[in-house]
Amino acid sequence: FAKEYIEVHKKAGFFPTYYWCYDDLYKSGKMDALIKTALEKKDDIRRILKEVSGSVKDEAWLPVSVVCENCGKIMSTRAFDYDGETIGYACDKSPDDVVPCGHTGRVSPYGGKTKLFWKTDWAAKWIANSVAIEGGGKDHSTKGGSRDVANHIAKEVYGHTSPFDIPYEFFLVGGKKMSSSKGRGSSAKEMSELFPPELLRLILIGKDINQQIDVDPEGDSVPRMYDWYDDLAEKVREGVEDDFTRLYELCQLKDIASVPWQLRFSQVAFMVQMPHLSLVEEAEKVKGSPLTQEEKEKLEERAAYASFWLQTYAPASYRYVLQEGDEVPTLSDTQKKALAELLSYVEEGNRTGEELHLFLHELKTSVPITPKELFSAIYQLFLGRDSGPKAGWFLSVLPHEFLVKKLGAAS
To answer: For the whole model, what pTM was predicted?
Structure first.
């Protein structure tokens, strides 16, 4: 998991200094004195656990796990005696389907042969690494939570002042907290595969730490995240000087040389499903001018992310198949009349998305027809469903002969 997170960090352009708990702290001996203190003050730790969190440990309990000398496992061992030099242990526990080997023995607790239990380990690492500030998920900082216990251990066992705490909100997946223990949520790697580096950075830093980040790969939040980024870019292109500009700058992996225009993600996601369309040509129609080389590269990149999302997570509402057969859905007389007027309009020549958008808006009044009836007729005819992308733009990217033929059959 750590190596996977490091790859995500690299992609997002974050390069912290890493330490490995076992090699850098335990095996190196950096934790030895702290382990010794914890073992000598085990009764104080037991008292703190009970008073602060309500966790009750028996008198034989020790605040460490032992690495079994026989099988090398740590989850299956039970430490029960400390004589000032060594710890007695038995490899006889079976948590989470871990199979114990049954070995018993005594071992020195130093040099990586034992590990402090979580809340004591947290307090000890603050001291070993001279930590001044450390945040954590808000659940850790509740009364009686892990941070509360570690604070007491740091002060009462080690005589150490705890680092400044910065509790932060959760990263949610579809409105639910990510949970490895419950098998819920996507991994950091899976999330990173949905977004280019700049957008991944925006998701991570674009909200205050007391605001939740909620991404549902199987809903519409992925297109919304791309729109969020594009809206920021638009403000910067317009020369808006405010926090939006600063946020956009922080999202970049390098100094801003230009702010490329990009086609909206939902439009790209539609286009990659339409083999008759040229992404570059359609993007240039929407932009109203030729794409720069950088914009073409960004379009290609976005198309790759859109294709991946469609193949893995996208809901059915974003998957489209053109109805190329001669079948016509059942339509009311009002819907047929509206499609007939639309046919007359498009027969005069190719229309832009904006022109079609305005015509459809006028059509609702001139027929008259309700928006639901009108758009349902269009989407049923061309996509075999009741909804779809923005109707004006959608009709404008259809092959003209195909558009005229389908409208003629329906009206």
So the answer is: 0.81
